[in-house]
Amino acid sequence: MSVSLILALGLGVLGYVIAPRRAVAAAGGDARKLAALPRQYGLNTLLAVLVPSFAILIAGSLAGAGLYLGWAILIVAFIGFAGSLFNITPDYRARTHAESWIKLILIAASVIAILTTVGIVFSMVFEARNFFSQYDWKDFFLSAEWSPNFRGNSSLGILPLLWGTLYISFIALIFAVPIGLFAAIYLSEYSSRRMRSIAKPAIEILAGIPTIVYGLFALVTVGPFLRDYFAAPMGFGDSASSVMTAGLVMGVMLIPFVSSLSDDIINAVPQTMRDGSLGLGATKSETIRQVVIPAALPGIVGAILLAASRAIGETMIVVLGAGAAARLSLNPFEAMTTVTVKIVSQLTGDTDFASPETLVAFALGMTLFVITLCLNVLALMIVRKYREQYE
């Protein structure tokens, strides 16, 4: 099969080289008489060979036709190669045909993305159904105890996991939203062009740091600092792993999400609104408070909801910063855990995949998927409303 793909690729490259020359020759040596540029004839030939070849490869792989798949790829590639070359005439609109091949590629990419999403959803739905056939859904959604035991008699209540997820996410947003929003206001309204060119990329670097690095920072630096200077002196506990540790570090990670999106949204507010406010005698700060922020508020709320969905799905920072204790508590300096952490823990190790203690990971994943989907849909609805208003 690999030899067939290499030969098909060679035919495509050969057609890309030969087709422009053949097109010019068909026009009597005058490229101006062609209905398309010479290189577009080559691109059309290349795509006519490669697109059907990869389509046969994917279809044959899914159907399990391994023995004859290589020959089928070669035959389709040769038909595309020969057909494209024989169709070359001065009136042949190679650009239109090449764009048709590109359109097919884009449609295929969209279909693959949709089918991947559908496959993920159905895989979780089927396994979650298997879980609820063995474990009562009321105990799962309404129980406040999480105590999995692979020998049986497990308590698999999701409430303490949801509480830890929402508690940590809330602290992260309380920390990230004001800082990110104030940074966006400064960058869009007050900073010079030189300062903006330096500060904006510097803030966005935070989004590129791996989450495991944030987790190590929480474990080694932030956790001991909060324990030694806040939790222990005030009598809240002596654990370095806590909700506050994970929330603060996660908040640092979320700052560029809030800042960058809010900055773009504030810049999208029409300048005429600012000019009108200033022309009526308002100061710059009054214009920002009473005109710019209210106008950009739907988009800012959408940015906050997108950051919230990112916080809810975080795992590594929680594992290293907040611990793995499933409990319901208001003390932010106690160790807690989240849904994502327990999904990982229930699926690791040598466990029986058909047991409720393992299948609960899919029920947890389905619940988290629904929560984040609702947040994303709400954010997209708000952002769409904002864009319709100002574009």
List keywords for this structure.
391 residues, mainly alpha, MetI-like fold, two-stranded antiparallel ribbon, 78% helix, flat
Q: Indicate the CATH architecture of the largest domain.
A: Orthogonal Bundle
Distance between the termini: 50 Å
Arithmetic mean pLDDT:
87
Strand order of the largest sheet: 1-2
Element order: H for helix, E for strand: HHHHHEEHHHHHHHHH
Topology record:
Blueprint: H1 2-26, H2 38-63, H3 66-86, H4 94-134, H5 137-142, E1 146-147, E2 155-156, H6 159-190, H7 193-208, H8 211-234, H9 243-267, H10 271-279, H11 284-312, H12 316-321, H13 339-347, H14 356-390
Antiparallel strand pairs: 1-2
Description:
The structure is a single chain. With 391 residues, this protein is an all-alpha fold. It has two domains: 115 residues, no CATH class; 245 residues, MetI-like fold, CATH 1.10.3720.10. Helix content is 78%, strand content 1%. The protein contains 14 helices and two strands. The chain has a two-stranded antiparallel sheet. A hairpin with a 7-residue loop joins β1 and β2. α1 packs antiparallel against α2 and α7 crosses α9. The radius of gyration is 29 Å and the shape is flat.
Provide a brief overview of the structure.
The protein has 391 residues and is an all-alpha fold. It folds into two domains: 2-116, no CATH class; 146-390, MetI-like (MetI-like fold). Helix content is 78%, strand content 1%.
